Amino acid sequence: MSVQDTIREQVTSHPVVLYMKGTPQFPQCGFSANATQILKACGVTDFFSVNVLADPEIRQGIKEYANWPTIPQLYINGEFVGGSDIMRELYQSGELQQMLGK
After folding, report:
1. What is the pLDDT of residue 45?
2. Strand (E) positions, 1-102?
3. How far apart (Å, rounded) are the C-alpha atoms in residues 62 and 91?
4. Is the dihedral of CA 68, 90, 51, 78 positive or negative?
5. At what angle do helices 3-13 and 56-66 cross, to 10 degrees?
6. Ramachandran sector of residue 80 (left: φ over 0; alpha: ψ -120 to 50; beta: rest)
7. Whether pTM exceeds 0.90
8. What is the pLDDT along the chain (102 residues), one digit of tens a residue?
9. Whole-angstrom Cα distance, residue 1 to residue 23?
10. CA quadruple 6, 95, 37, 49: dihedral, nearest 10
11. Fewest CB atoms within 10 Å of the CB: 49, 67, 78, 95?
12. Which contacts qualify for 90-98: CB closer than 8 Å, 24 or more apart?
């Protein structure tokens, strides 16, 4: 299975997926910590996270998958949403909560 196949399987088999540096409990960068906090503020307590620092192939592959150069990356129902800044904007406007069904 290729890295792209692995990523496709991850984003399509979980309703909310966050590719991040570190884990939700121990984020390894401020943007990943911010993304985790935004999801929690939306009432999402259970989401699938992938620590890109643990797998260099996934770290590079996810950038290619979404054609998006930075991490974190949020996927909802298989669709790429964006990174930390976009998540913050969507949260502030209330759109992210709607996308998450919260």
Report:
1. 86
2. 16-20, 48-51, 73-76, 79-82
3. 23
4. negative
5. 70
6. beta
7. yes
8. 899 999 999 999 999 999 999 999 999 999 999 999 999 999 998 899 999 999 999 999 999 999 999 999 999 999 999 999 999 999 999 999 999 987
9. 24
10. -10
11. 67
12. 91/38, 91/41, 91/42, 96/38, 96/42, 97/42, 97/43
- Nearest CA to 90 out of 22, 29, 45, 41 is that of 41
pLDDT given at position 18: 98
In angstroms, what CA-CA distances link 75 with 11, 90, 93? 6, 13, 18
Bridge partners of 20? 51
